[in-house]
Design brief:
By secondary structure, this protein is an all-beta fold. Helices cover 0% and strands 48% of the residues. The strands form 2 sheets. Strands 2, 4, 5, 6, 9, 10 and 11 form a 7-stranded mixed sheet that branches. Strand 7 and strand 8 form a beta hairpin. The chain is globular. It starts with a strand and ends with a strand.
C-alpha cells in the first residue's frame, strides 16, 4: 500500500516562499502520476499541479502558474512543490495525491476522483 506524507507547510507573509515535500513509503513513486490539491477554508478542493510519472510533463492551475514549480527526486521517492511569491489566496491545506498511470499530463491533470492515494495534508497560511 502506498502511503504519502506531506511536509513543509507553515505560515508565511505575502511574497514569501515555501517548499512542500511529498514522501512516499510502501511503494516506489516511479509508476505514479503525482498531483497537489489544495482546499481553502470554506471552499472545495482544487487541483494545483500534477507531474507525470517520468517527470517529463507537468501542469499548473492558472492561479499558480509562473509562481509554483513541481519536481521529482526518484532517489528520495519524493515530489516537491516549490511555491514562490505566495498570496493570501494560496492559504489552505495542501494534499499530495497519486494515480498509477504512465500517461503524460500535456493537457490535463486527473480529476480529483481519479487519484488512488491521498496524503493527510499540510497547512499553508499566507498572511501579513
Amino acid at each position: 500500500q502506498l502511503q504519502l506524507v506531506e511536509s513543509g507547510g507553515g505560515a508565511v507573509q505575502p511574497g514569501g516562499s515555501l517548499r512542500l515535500s511529498c514522501t512516499a513509503s510502501g511503494r516506489r513513486l516511479d509508476d505514479y502520476l503525482i498531483g497537489w490539491v489544495r482546499q481553502a477554508p470554506g471552499k472545495e478542493r482544487e487541483g494545483v499541479s500534477c507531474v507525470s510519472s517520468n517527470g517529463a510533463t507537468a501542469l499548473f492551475a492558472d492561479s499558480v502558474r509562473a509562481r509554483f514549480t513541481i519536481s521529482r527526486d526518484y532517489g528520495k521517492n519524493t515530489v516537491y512543490l516549490e511555491m514562490n511569491n505566495l498570496e493570501p489566496e494560496d492559504t489552505g491545506v495542501y494534499y499530495c495525491t497519486a494515480e498509477r498511470t504512465p500517461r503524460s499530463v500535456n493537457h490535463y491533470c486527473p480529476a480529483l476522483g481519479d487519484y488512488d492515494f491521498w496524503g493527510q495534508g499540510t497547512q499553508v497560511t499566507v498572511s501579513s
